[in-house]
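hey m, so remember when u said the tokens were messed up on ur end? i reran from scratch. heres the input so u can diff it against urs
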Amino acid sequence: MNWKKTSLLAGLLLALANSSYAQSKTSPTSPLTQASAQGLITLPFNPDVLDYAKAEDWQALTTQLGSYQVIFHGEIHNRLSDHLIQAELVHLLHQQATSFAIGVEWFQAPFQPWVDAYIAGEIDEGELLQRTEYFTRWRYDWRLLQPIMHYAQGQQIPVLALNAPAELTRQIAREGLDSLSPEQRAQLPDIQPPQPYHAERLEGFFGQRLGDHGQIDYLISAQRTWDETMAANAAAWLANHPKSRLLLFAGQFHLEYQHAIISDFLRRLPDLTGKTLSLANGEFEEWYENRFDGFLLTQPLSLPAHGRLGSHITPQGQACLRELIDDSAAESAGLQINDCIVGFNNQPIRHFSDLMLALYQTQPNQQVELLITRPAGENHRRAQLINLKLD
């Protein structure tokens, strides 16, 4: 496969995010076709597939997808190539099945109502990000996930917020499962200890990073909480929709070697044994035999840089500056701490998420116009236009 790392990547992201499938429920375009149109990949897209006995390449693999009710894809969270494969899997299942859902690690389960509201078109993208606290709970560049979420909204495909609340997993990592109150514990499913081989891998993973410092058992409990919660939420949805199919996207560590999410999921729905497929993609050096049912050999794609202000901004509520970075665009333009950005190139800014969506559409060194409000005496603010060259 020939992946081309070019400046056209920004064009791909814009095309995918704003393409016809975001508005039309008929004949959405393949994400890979759009990637080819932007010069990022060469068609036919047909990387080799390792470990999967029924297919040696991507084209052959796609003919087998209909044999599985559940398809897991293990991602590297910040790698565009992985999310492009995921977007294409969504497209392929949409062509094959009238009923399926996309389960994701990116959103935490308590925020499911806001994800549902976005898919239903009741709230916009900025509100989705703000209401799910995306930029404090997940933080990865939203442009990676935009094509998938826009496709899902355009085609009314349910998206399942699978992950455990960060407040609980952080507490477990610090103090252990026994530190949870009965009310907190009630928010989580049954959490089993890892299977012996999985336990050995977790101990090696955390031990290598912590040495003799920290409570490895607590970190393993937090990891198991993530795995069990995502598996339980996915299994619960499929139990209520037994004729539907499921795509589940999570980090590779949660899915490899059929452990963690996959074994936890099948413990709850044993009748689906043999009806699941685990996939991942990456370079040959990342492949280990039987790590996944199928491993696509791809080269990484990275996101292009976008323009930056050079300041720390409150992630919840209004987009107000709480710290300036020395010699940054914000400092050079005369922005001050407690300035609140309410407009960006004539686009209203309600909150931090709106600001990030606006910045994603810019390039470094681009000239922009900000509308800010600045404190002007007690309980008063003054509006002001600021011209700024982004970092």
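this time it looks ok to me. The domain at 9-166+221-297 is CATH 3.40.50.11550 (Rossmann fold). if urs says something different then somethings off w ur setup not the seq
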